[in-house]
Design brief:
Number of helices of chain B: 14
Number of strands of chain B: 13
Structural class of chain B: alpha+beta
Structural class of chain A: alpha/beta
Strand content of chain B: 15-25%
Largest sheet of chain A: 6 strands, mixed
Strand content of chain A: 25-35%
Distance between the termini of chain A: 16 Å
Helix content of chain A: 25-40%
CATH architecture of chain A: 3-Layer(aba) Sandwich
Number of domains of chain A: 1
Strand order of the largest sheet of chain B: 3-4-9-6-8-7
Radius of gyration of chain B: 34 Å
Order of helices and strands of chain A: EEEHEEHEHHHEHEHEE
Shape of chain A: globular
Distance between the termini of chain B: 28 Å
Radius of gyration of chain A: 18 Å
CATH superfamily of chain A: P-loop containing nucleotide triphosphate hydrolases
Helix content of chain B: 55-70%
Oligomer: heterodimer
C-alpha cells in the first residue's frame, strides 16, 4: 500500500432523480463518498437502494441530477456525452456480471476494444495485450472466440480488457454473479491480486463473503450511504 | 452529426470490423446485398440494351444521310389490286418522272443536288455465271450523295452519261460471284441482250434497305447491284418494264424509281419536305410516291430513345430503392440484435459518432460490395445478350458510374437512420438489453 494515497474519486452531495412517467424517482438523495487511490471498495445494499445508479454515475455512464463528481481531479459531472466517452475510454475499466465480450471478436481483439476509440496504433499495444492475456492466464487462447471459452475464462478476458487502458479505477458489477463458486473464487483472487498491485477497485455485490475481501464496505439504503466501514482484510 | 474526426487507424480498424461482422453473418449479408446486386445489374443491363437498340436504329438512319430527302415511286394502292388479281391487267403508269427531278432541282430552295435513279430487277450474266441483280441507272453524282467506297477502277463519269456508253460499275459482292477466277475490270457482262464493260468496283455501305419495292427482291443478296449511266438505262431498257410472273404479264411505265434530294444544310430539310410535297402533289394526281426524311426519322428515334431511357431509368431506380430499403431493414434488425454490443462499446469509450461510423461503414461496405457484384453482372448480362442474340448492346461508362454511385448513396442514405438509432441508445439501457 502506498503510504499517503491521494483521493482519486470525490463525489459530493450527488442527487439522481429519474422521471418515470409523471412520478419522480429519487434514486440517490445526496451521496458523499471519497475514494483513495489503491483502495478496494465494495458497495452493498438491497435492490432499490441506489447502488446500481451509484455505479453508473461512478462509471460515467450517467450524469447526476445535481452534485459534484471529481474523477482524478476533473469535474466530470457536467461533461458532455463525447467527453464522458473519452473519460470512460481512458480512465475507467469495466467488469460486468455477464462479461459483455463482443461475440465476433477473438480474445486478443476483445482486449483491444477500448483502444479502438482512442485513435492509437494497435500495433504499438500488441505486446501489452499479450502480457495482459498472460496475466489472466489465457495466453494460449488468444485467437479463441468468447463462445469457445468457459464463463470464468470469459470473465478473465473482461478483466484483461479493463486493464488495457491503465485505468484510474476498475468498476466491477457483480463480477462473479454468473459464475459457480469455484471459478468465482478464482476471479476474485485475480481481482485481489490486481488490488495488491495498486489498482483501485470499486465492486458492487450483494454477497457478504465477497464484500469482506474489500478494505472498505459502503452499504447503501434508500439512496443514501447507510454505513461506511473500513476494515482489515479477511 | 457526422463530423467524422477519425484517425487513419481508427477508420481502418472500423472497416475491418465492419467486414468481419458482415462475414460472420454470410447468409444475411448475402441476401441483403442481393437487392443491391439486382438493382445495379438491371440499371446497367437495361441501359446497355436500350442504348444498343437506339444506337442501331440511329446508325441505320444516319447512313441514309441527314441532309437527304428520299422520294420513292410506289404503286398506287388501287391499281396494285387489279394487277395481282387479273391476269390480263396491262400497262399501268405511275411514279416519279424526269420532269419531277428537274423541277425539284430548280424550284426548291437550298437544294444542293438531286439524284434520279432507275432501278430494274434483272439477271446479269458473265460467261456461264448468272446472278439476279438490280440494275441501277444513275448519275455520276451518286458517289457524292450515297456512302459508297470505291474498291477498284472508277465510278461512272459525265462522259459515260453524255454518250450513253455501255459501261457499268458493280458491287464487289456481285463481282466475287460473277468473276470467281479473274479480275472483273474491263470484262464485259450481259444484262438482257446488252453488254456492259465493267469499269469499277464499289462497296455499298448504306441505303439498301430503303430501295423501293424491296418485297419483290426477297431472297436475293442486297448488294448485287449493277450501276449504269441513267441515259444508258433509258435507252436500253425503255420506259416500260414488262415483268412476267407465273402465267401473267404486267407492264409498268415508271420513269424514275427514286429521287434523292440532298439539301445544303440539315436546317433546310424540314422546310423542303413540305415544299417537295406541295410540288409533287401539283403534278401527280394519284398518290404514287412516298417521302422518307431520315432527319425526321432520326428525331423520332431520339425522342423514342429518351422515353425509353426514362422508363428504364425509373424501373431501375425503383429496384435500387427497394435494394436500399432491404439494406435499411436488415441494418435496423441488426441494431436491435446488437444493442448490447453497442452498450459495451459505449461503456468502453466509444462516442456516438464512433457507433454511427461503425454502422455506416457496414452499410456502405454492403452496398459497395453489392454494387461491385452488380456492376460485374450488369456488364456480363449485355455481353451474354449480344452473344446469344443479334441484339447490339452498348455499355456506357456513365451508366456504370450512375449505378455504382446510386448504390453507394443508397447505402449511406439508408444506413444513416439505423446508425443514428444505434448511437442514440442510452448506454445503460443498451447494456441491460438481453
Amino acid at each position: 500500500m502506498i503510504s499517503n494515497p491521494k483521493t482519486i474519486i470525490d463525489i459530493r452531495n450527488i442527487v439522481k432523480i429519474f422521471q418515470v412517467g409523471e412520478i419522480e424517482v429519487r434514486a440517490l438523495r445526496g451521496v458523499d463518498v471519497a475514494i483513495k487511490e489503491g483502495s478496494y471498495v465494495a458497495i452493498m445494499g438491497p435492490s432499490g437502494s441506489g447502488k446500481s445508479t451509484m455505479l453508473n454515475i461512478l462509471g460515467c455512464l450517467d450524469r447526476p441530477t445535481s452534485g459534484e463528481y471529481y474523477l482524478g481531479g476533473e469535474d466530470v459531472a457536467t461533461m458532455d456525452d463525447d467527453t464522458l466517452s473519452v473519460i470512460r475510454g481512458k480512465r475507467l475499466g469495466f467488469i460486468f456480471q455477464s462479461y459483455n465480450l463482443i461475440a465476433q471478436l477473438t480474445v486478443i481483439e476483445n482486449i483491444q476494444v477500448p483502444l479502438l476509440y482512442q485513435g492509437v496504433n494497435l500495433k504499438d499495444y500488441e505486446d501489452k495485450c499479450v502480457e495482459l492475456a498472460e496475466l489472466v492466464g489465457l495466453k494460449d487462447r488468444l485467437d479463441h472466440r468468447p463462445t469457445q471459452l468457459s464463463g470464468g475464462q470469459q470473465q478473465r478476458v473482461a478483466i484483461a480488457r479493463s486493464l488495457i487502458n491503465d485505468p484510474l479505477m476498475i468498476l466491477a458489477d457483480e463480477p462473479t454473479g454468473n459464475l459457480d463458486s469455484k471459478t468465482g473464487k478464482e476471479v476474485l483472487e485475480l481481482i485481489d491480486e490486481l488490488n495488491s498491485q495498486g489498482k483501485t477497485i470499486v465492486m458492487v455485490t450483494h454477497d457478504d463473503d465477497i464484500a469482506y475481501r474489500a478494505d472498505r464496505v459502503i452499504r447503501m439504503k434508500d439512496g443514501r450511504v447507510d454505513k461506511d466501514e473500513y476494515r482489515q482484510r479477511a | 452529426m457526422l463530423q467524422l474526426s477519425l484517425t487513419q487507424h481508427q477508420l481502418l480498424n472500423t472497416v475491418k470490423l465492419g467486414v468481419k461482422s458482415l462475414l460472420l453473418h454470410k447468409l444475411r449479408s448475402g441476401l441483403t446485398m442481393l437487392g443491391m446486386i439486382f438493382g445495379v445489374c438491371s440499371v446497367i443491363a437495361m441501359l446497355a440494351i436500350g442504348e444498343g437498340a437506339s444506337h442501331e436504329a440511329q446508325e441505320r438512319i444516319k447512313r441514309l444521310g441527314s441532309t437527304n430527302i428520299i422520294i420513292n415511286s410506289v404503286k398506287p394502292p388501287e391499281s396494285q389490286d387489279d394487277n395481282n388479281t387479273s391476269g390480263k391487267s396491262f400497262g399501268i403508269e405511275y411514279g416519279l418522272t424526269y420532269d419531277d427531278a428537274s423541277r425539284l432541282q430548280f424550284t426548291i430552295p437550298n437544294v444542293s443536288n438531286v439524284l434520279p435513279m432507275r432501278i430494274i430487277r434483272d439477271n446479269v450474266r458473265f460467261n456461264r455465271n448468272q446472278e439476279p441483280c438490280q440494275v441501277i441507272g444513275t448519275l455520276p453524282s451518286y458517289t457524292a450523295m450515297q456512302k459508297v467506297d470505291l474498291v477498284a477502277g472508277r465510278f461512272l463519269s459525265m462522259v459515260d452519261q453524255k454518250h450513253q456508253r455501255n459501261v457499268c460499275v458493280i458491287t464487289s459482292g456481285l463481282a466475287a460471284r460473277l468473276f470467281p477466277y479473274q479480275s472483273p475490270l474491263q470484262s464485259t457482262i450481259r444484262v438482257k441482250d446488252v453488254y456492259y464493260q465493267v469499269v469499277g468496283l464499289i462497296n455499298e455501305t448504306g441505303t439498301m434497305d430503303q430501295r423501293p419495292q424491296k418485297d419483290e427482291m426477297e431472297g436475293e443478296p442486297l448488294d448485287n447491284n449493277v450501276y449504269i449511266p441513267l441515259s444508258t438505262a433509258k435507252t436500253r431498257f425503255g420506259e416500260t418494264l414488262i415483268r412476267r410472273n407465273a402465267g401473267s404479264f404486267s407492264a409498268e411505265k415508271v420513269e424514275l424509281h427514286q429521287i434523292i434530294v440532298k439539301m445544303e444544310t440539315t436546317e433546310s430539310v424540314i422546310a423542303a419536305e413540305q415544299q417537295i410535297k406541295g410540288l409533287l402533289k401539283r403534278f401527280h394526281n394519284q398518290n404514287d410516291y412516298e417521302l422518307i426524311v431520315p432527319l425526321q426519322l432520326l428525331r423520332e428515334a431520339e425522342a423514342t430513345k429518351r422515353m425509353f431511357n426514362i422508363v428504364l431509368g425509373s424501373i431501375a431506380a425503383i429496384s435500387l430503392l427497394v435494394g436500399g430499403i432491404g439494406i435499411m431493414n436488415i441494418m435496423l434488425a441488426t441494431v436491435t440484435e446488437r444493442t448490447r454490443e453497442i452498450g459495451v462499446r459505449r461503456a468502453l469509450g466509444a462516442k456516438k459518432k464512433d457507433i454511427v461510423t461503425q454502422f455506416l461503414i457496414e452499410t456502405v461496405v454492403l452496398s459497395i460490395g453489392g454494387g461491385t457484384i452488380g456492376v460485374m453482372l450488369g456488364v456480363l448480362v449485355p455481353l451474354l445478350v449480344s452473344a446469344s442474340t443479334d441484339m447490339v448492346t452498348i455499355i456506357t461508362p456513365w451508366s456504370v458510374a450512375l449505378a455504382f454511385g446510386i448504390s453507394g448513396l443508397t447505402g449511406i442514405a439508408f444506413g444513416i437512420y439505423p446508425a443514428s438509432q444505434a448511437a442514440e441508445l442510452d448506454p445503460i439501457e443498451a447494456l441491460r438489453h438481453e
